[in-house]
Each structure stands twice: as C-alpha cells, then as structure tokens.
Amino acid sequence: xxxxxxxxxxxxxxxxxxxxxxxxxxxxxxxxxxxxxxxxxxxxxxxxxxxxxxxxxxxxxxxxxxxxxxxxxxxxxxxxxx
Length: 82
What we know:
Blueprint: H1 13-16, H2 18-22, H3 24-27, H4 36-44, H5 48-57, H6 70-79
C-alpha cells in the first residue's frame, strides 16, 4: 500500500521574522487591545508575505500575522477564498 507523505511547509522565514526577535505580547494582545505596535513591526519585516501566506493556509485565528489582525485575515479569506 502506497501512502503519500505530506511535505512539511518551509518555515525558515520564521527565523528571520522580526516578531521572533520582539516577543509575542505585541502579536497576541489581550482582546480589545491595540495591534498598532505589531503592525508597525510587521511593516518593517522582510518575511511579512510568507507570514501572511502561512497564516491563511493554516487558518491561524489569533494574533497578528503578516501585518493583519484576526478580523482583517477573515475578511481577506472571505473576499479571496484562494
């Protein structure tokens, strides 16, 4: 019997991500808290697009990923179901 082994995603981008050097508090704030600082950091990050792609592909529901909040990612998925 032959089974296909799924290829794990390439997560090398995470090592260069600015959030890895900053701390999770900015990117996973308490409900109702501002995500402004996280978005500013994401705006400077070279891995932003890979981060957002990962979040959308893995249905990340919490935190700021690729510069977008949970609500913004949900809106993006609804308008661009890929």
